Structure formats: C-alpha cells, structure tokens
Amino acid sequence: EQPAVFGIGRELGRLPDDLIYHRASTALSDVEQKYRALVNSSTFAIVISDEQGRFCEVNAAFERIIGWSEAEIIGKDAQQLGLVSPEVQRQTNEQLAMGGSPQFATLEFKRRDGASRIAMHCTTRVLLDGVPLMFTVSVDITEYLRTQQELRDQDQQFRALFDNVKDGMFFAGAGGRFYEVNDAACRQLGYTRDELLQMNVFDID
To answer: What is the pTM of this model?
Structure first.
C-alpha cells in the first residue's frame, strides 16, 4: 500500500470585490515597477509632457543631461527651466499640436550650468486615458558632433599637406587599386586623379 492524499473542494463563488481590487492593484504595481525600472535604466532621456509643454514625468538620463532634478523639473516647461528660448518653446508647442507622425528634430539647449548642448529627439503625441500627452526620447549628440568636426578638421589638414608636397604620393589597396593620389603623383605619371582612381599599380608602366 502507498500513502495518498484525499481532498474535497467546494466552489465558493465570485471573489470578493476587495480581493479582486487588491489583485488588480498588485498587478498594476508590478507593471509600473517594471516600467520605471526600464525607463530609468535607459541611456536615452525619456520625457512625458502635456500639450503646453510642461513636464509630467522624466527619467534619470534626462536629469543628467539638463542638470536639474526631477522635483525641480515636474510642472515646468523647457522655457521656464532656461533650456530653450520662448520662441523655440512656442514653435515646439505648435508643431506638437499638429499631431500626426512622430516629430524628429535636433535642438540646441542650455544646461543648468549654462553649458550649451545639442540633442536629437523624437516626440510622439499619444492619448493616455483620453488625455493627450507628448512622449519624447532624446539623446545628447554634442560629443558626437564635436568628434565629427575634429575629424573633418584633421582631414582638411591632411588634405592640405597631401596635396601640397612636391613628392608624388598615393595609397593603394591590397589588390593594387589606387584609392587616393596627390597632385604631384598625377603630374609625374601623366594621368588625372579621376583616371588613376580607376586604375591599379599594375596598369602603370
């Protein structure tokens, strides 16, 4: 003989309303905690604002970008925080009021410490419980733009040196194909730059 468990069940009917409410509240609380954990761990700045541009909710990345705390941000708009000029704030509100597809823009703003920064953002108009709100995701691209400008400056300096030396200079790939030549090389070889870039070293006698 083997030990066994014997049980009797009885249907008790519908759950009490307070228990249903408790379970629903617990589920919503779990969803909200996951949402907040996701939003606050994002490296992108995330903002929810009303139709007047007043901030309703922001994440930690947005606080870091602009230098203001959440308590100081909520209920104010970008103009009140000194992030943008009144004209920029007005134009932004007008564009968002038009609705439609997400609005992409690159915007220069000032941090709390007065430093000028540039952000690229996308704003979408959404309805939450029938209330129109603006959902914005932003990323600070100041350092990226600065790096790109430095690379362009270095390229111009290299080009000025490369094109003005008296010696013929060229770059060729592993297959011998020219991918850059200077003016001196063109004069020495008797080809134009465009012609040489269609050739390789084996085409040269």
So the answer is: 0.63
